[in-house]
User: Fold this.
Amino acid sequence: MPPRPHANPLFLRDEELRQGIEMLFYAYRDFTSEPDTILAKYKFGRAHHRVIYFVGRYPGMAVSDLLNILKITKQSLSRVLGQLVREEFISQRQGTRDRRQRLLELTEKGRELERQLTQNQRERIARAYREAGADAVEGFRKVMLGVMSSDGDRDRFERSGPPRR
Amino acid sequence: MPPRPHANPLFLRDEELRQGIEMLFYAYRDFTSEPDTILAKYKFGRAHHRVIYFVGRYPGMAVSDLLNILKITKQSLSRVLGQLVREEFISQRQGTRDRRQRLLELTEKGRELERQLTQNQRERIARAYREAGADAVEGFRKVMLGVMSSDGDRDRFERSGPPRR
DNA sequence: CATATATGTCAACATGACTGACATAACTTC
DNA sequence: GAAGTTATGTCAGTCATGTTGACATATATG
Assistant:
């Protein structure tokens, strides 16, 4: 069912932008689908995945760091994080610099689940990168950075990486 | 809070793939945030947006077409679609080829809301495309197509577009 | 005629967001 | 050292959006 033709001279631009919108939808839908299935076996949802992922990514991060990344309320986070701590996927220790902080880490059990969930998404990205090629990956990165709202998030992706020729 | 260093020789590849995962998360989070705020004024959610968007994109589509795109159950769709029809954002008419079908279209009210919601996302994409440049956009498209699971979805994005030089 | 398809409906449930209010401990500032 | 701010947690209620399962109707197709 292709989109209907259109006489408007702005059509090409509008069509291109709509395709961008839709690509984000389809890609994200498929990107989350298989991890969701794995999570269901543990009676967890996508929110648990995000917490596990970022705690694995930044071991020793504080609760407030996680809130800044996820941009949800602490009450929302509290439910999933509480479950993950009680079921021993995540451990907490008091901060030394600031003893109010609870620093988060994956337990061995948590690392195991993280690997299982993330492997799936890593493979999907790896396949897409491989098929698209290195230049395409660079373009993908540029566009994705542009879609984000904040410089703070963009800064997470600074390229220390290969020198540009 | 940069990721901790790592001695594993696969680090660069793993780091690159993880950045891909995270870019999808941050971009999607920000991509949906402003439309969500607009929708809240109508007491609608993201699911309503998706329905309005795709009905606007493919006027006269059947319910089953929408289910194939959204990949949710008909019961889930029924709730939001029912609201949108009752509140006259979407109209239904019987199919002629197959009279069991209910063909969906936006009403004027629906088109108005669709414009409001989509304009926001179009502008975000337009800005990202403009800043990244044409080659980057082509790379972005390639990678996004690769992330999708099905050829059926990839086919929605066939380039009839500008002849390659 | 028999079967499959397109659609809808009712009910129950889980997840993950939200707001608002309140509490405690620890850090920072005057 | 008192006052204010920050980091975190908790209780309670609400809403949106997904799920499964069962059943119903009209229409199309073999």
Remarks:
- Chain B has one domain: 13-147.
- The helical segments of chain B are 11-41, 46-57, 63-70, 74-86, 108-132, 134-147, 151-154.
- The domain at 13-147 of chain B is CATH 1.10.10.10 (Arc Repressor Mutant, subunit A).
- The first strand of chain B starts at residue 61 and ends at 62.
